[in-house]
Amino acid sequence: MNHAAASRGFPVIALRDHAARLFEAGGVPPADAAIIAEVLVHADLRGHGSHGVTRIPIYLERILKGAAKARPNIRIERKAPALLWVDGDNGPGPVVSLKAVDAAIGVAKEQGVCAAVVAHSNHNGAGSFYAERAAAAGCLLLGMTNAPPSMAVHGGRQAVIGTNPITFGSLPAGDVPVLADMATSVVARGKIVEGAKRGESIPAGWALDAEGRPTTDARAAEKGVVLPLSGAKGSALAVMVEILVGVLSGGRFAGSLGNLYSDFETPQDIGHFFLLLDVAKLMPAVDYRARLSALVAELKASACADGFSEILMPGEIEARRAADLAASGIVLPDNVIHDIDEAARSVGMPGLLEQPGHR
Questions:
Q1: CATH code: domain of residue 171
Q2: For 165-187, what is each residue's pLDDT tens digit?
Q3: Is residue 333 part of a domain?
Q4: Which of 75, 243, 305, 310 gets the most CB atoms within 10 Å of its CB?
Q5: Would I find Oxidoreductase among this entry's keywords (predicted)?
């Protein structure tokens, strides 16, 4: 059964500042706390609440319990002219990932391309944040991350691999972004987790229950497995990600990864992979944008199928949503507000509803 969740709106700046203060209170340096807050609010702005500020409580709890380090010693080693290996030292995923991407941008500007393989990290939020960072520097980005097992491989019914997201980001075509950010599962598992908290139903085909039966009950799905995108194809992509970010990094992979929500003894040891290409090394950025705009215009001019009024590029609907929410504020369900306020109390901070400007 679906239960409509009450909700309230918060100005973006106030929400971002509140999140940063909570992480600072948990021992994270101010600059790093601001990075974590920015990454989480970025996801909410794009309409992907499962990766947004709803993650504040679990990120903070892991830091407070020592399952993730508030002040990691992140090491970046240049293994070859265009190859970096990054030791995240069990730091917050957004902090580790941004340092890796910024270092990779610098190398890509020098070499034309850079691959950064990251080990010993944690959940790093929405990949689109790092793609936008690279695009602002004139680089294309292909990003990947692994996750603890929650998905079956094609033909199986056990959780043996993560939903292992893949992100691709380009320079925009004029005002139109080209940014794909997707799990290799039918749906990001975070959406099932959020649905389970609210007792909601989920669409058929998303998941199996603990007995391996198809289910539309989010709570039953949370105890079971999410299914790979397009069957064998999504399963193959998830395995590819696991090789690049788990096996290649030297960190944990698949079943050896620490569980974000239930294991506070084992570091998650998440891996990431970022491949960056400096467009200017192949052609002037203005020429690339013109060619990309021509491609986008051709695709958007194609005939719409029944039920569609417009052809949208990957990331376009999220960009529009972000522009709207930046002006109107981010609406959070009451259960998310409650969880964030519980986290605030754990570090002696006031709750969201005590902040100025909430609606």
A1: 3.30.1370.60
A2: 999 999 999 999 999 999 999 98
A3: yes
A4: 243
A5: yes
